[in-house]
Amino acid sequence: MRRFWKPLSYFITLLLGGLLTLACLAALMIYSRVAPADEAFQQACPRFTPEEVREEYIRSWLRSAGKDERKAAIGLDSLSFNTAPTFGGKTWFGKLQVSGSKGSDEAYVILDCRTGMFDYSGTELSSGR
């Protein structure tokens, strides 16, 4: 009887562990979804002017750069921003170049009109101009 009980207890433990893992994975998938932006933003976003999107890019960059050392590394005494965003497929995209007295930062920025989220890719910080 003991030979039967020991493997059965291992099997039950593995089964419960697997079920707990699946439950945690399902909860993560459900709660990690990005919620869509409000309806007013989704309707207004495609009609933004490139200048409005440029200003949003700059505000977003300044918020994210404040969380790390990018602003200090570039030099805050003179910042200039260069971008020409274009619209296509429910997204605005463009290359944002930020130059300061000590260096520059450049990234491709995407503004998703469905979620209202900014995505930065290819961020590259260079020292010296």
Structure explained in plain terms:
By secondary structure, the chain is an alpha+beta fold. It contains 4 helices and 5 strands, in the order ααααβββββ. Strands 1, 2, 3, 4 and 5 form a 5-stranded antiparallel beta sheet that branches. β3 and β4 form a beta hairpin. The longest helix is centred in the first third of the chain and has 30 residues, at 2-31. The relative contact order is 0.14. The model is unreliable at 124-129 (pLDDT under 50).
Provide a short characterization of the protein structure.
With 129 residues, the chain is an alpha+beta fold.
Give the helix/strand layout.
Blueprint: H1 2-31, H2 39-44, H3 50-65, H4 70-74, E1 80-82, E2 86-88, E3 91-99, E4 103-112, E5 118-127
Antiparallel strand pairs: 1-3, 2-3, 3-4, 4-5
**Tally of individual domains:** 2
CATH architecture of the largest domain: Roll
- Strand-residue proportion: 25-35%
Name of the CATH first level of the largest domain: Alpha Beta
CATH topology (level 3) name of the largest domain: Nuclear Transport Factor 2, Chain: A
Low-confidence stretches: 124-129
Q: Give the quaternary arrangement of the chains.
A: single chain
Count of individual helical segments: 4
List the defining traits of the structure above:
single chain, 129 residues, alpha+beta, Nuclear Transport Factor 2, Chain: A, 2 domains, 5-stranded antiparallel beta sheet, 4 helices
